[in-house]
Design brief:
heterodimer; A: 237 residues; mainly alpha; Outer Surface Protein A, domain 3; 2 domains; 3-stranded antiparallel sheet; 10 helices; 6 strands; B: 280 residues; alpha/beta; TIM Barrel; two-stranded antiparallel sheet; DUF2063_N_sf (chain A); DNA-binding (chain A); DNA-binding domain-containing protein (chain A); DNA binding (chain A); DUF2063 (chain A)
Amino acid sequence: MPDLADFQANFARAILDDDSFDRLSGQKAFAVYRNTCARGAVEALRAAYPTVDMLVGEEMFTQVALDYRREHPPRGPVLSEYGGEFATFLARQSWTGELPYLADVARLDRLWLESFLASEPAGIERSYSRGSRVALHPATRFAWLAMPAMSIWQAHRNPHGLVELDPVWADEWALFTRPGLSVRAELIDAPYYRLLLACVAPAPVAEVVSAVAAEFPRADVSELLHRAVASGAIIIQ
Amino acid sequence: MTPTAGLGFKPVHYEQALACPAAGLWFEIHAENYMVDGGPRLAMLEALRASFPLSVHGVGLSLAGTARPDGEHLSKLKRLVDRFQPFLLSEHLAWSRHEEVSFPDLLPFPRTNEALETIGRNIDITQSALGRQILIENPSLYMQLEGHEWPESLFLAELVRRTGCGLLIDVNNVFVSANNLGFNPVSYLDALPRAEISEIHLAGHSEDPLLGGSLLIDSHDTPVSAEVWKLYDWLLAHRGTDRPPTLIERDDNIPEFDTLLIERDKAAAMMAGQREVANA
């Protein structure tokens, strides 16, 4: 009588190892399980990284996703959580040297998804004074990119089709917010990025303002603060 | 209104689904797709739930795994169930986890006494944690395994007896397994404790691209086949007058909402006793 633990250990090994061939995995129908497991992981990754998929093409993405799965098989059944290491993985691949912005585009796909799935804030105040504390909205995500990855990302995610793209090869700052029921992506500047960074731990307004002003003396910090509150990027506590 | 025939909920059909006036219509979701912290997905489900009965169908508990159900996964499921109060809650007779790795599939196992003990324990744990009955679905099988001590129908009946769980019978899975493993699907349905069936699934299958009709795949990407409608008709005729809520599942190659609704209406009509539509 086969022991359940032994049976499952053997089955699991044979699914992950395409070369295994024994009484079980040698059966033609075993391929159904192998394919379903591989396809599930590949399609979950594709769904999470649609812009990377557009940039490299469907066939290439499938190959890369299979390589990724060999190193990082799914660790849980909630597939929207799968693929958290994908940007780091892409950065390590030698072929991405030809697409130096690809790993950053993957990071942006991930930030969009995190924003989309994040929780709602507990309660939002509408007005603030210098004594108020501000914090990031749970769905706010932002990044500093050493390349025009956000311009590339936005051009591909434009719902009206690919817009003409002529990026300036300089640093960019990206912000994702979820003001209503959809995620909004925007390019921001360095002072705005600094302001968001100052809100990572909830802080008094005065403290945030002086942190930004110290680094960017010419920035209109109160205008930035209004923008951040109006867009829902930060909330008043 | 008593739920009759339902549809697997597809976010692309959200607006038509919400506006659909069909009597007895209900929707089913895959639990794992809604195990998220917040945002539009849960907001959409909230709106759907306000207008329709909801069924939650889990694919990730790995009840036939040797490990106990993952505590974190179970608490996510509980949060979902507590919030949306589904009228049906189901999982599979399959495993999908081994040690640290999850397999996005429903994997087979030899139906031994040991497996029966393990699965019974895992169903007990799940039902206690959730504070309610769950339904267990029969899987689609693709290959012969050595070492079975129980036929599947009797294995399911024994799990019902031991744990008080109910059954979700997927008629397409019965058809696919019967074709692939060479057994009689009517004998299978005949051996089930049919009074314990609380939900029925109907779906489409396709032939394996290499092996053809000798290997059918439970692909959920085509309409329900004529053979599966016939088996469904047999099951209804042998169940008595309280017909279990029936779901049309479609997960790939998704057609217009109205096309799915036609299949759903056919199931509803058959549930209402119009047997002749089985041949339509």
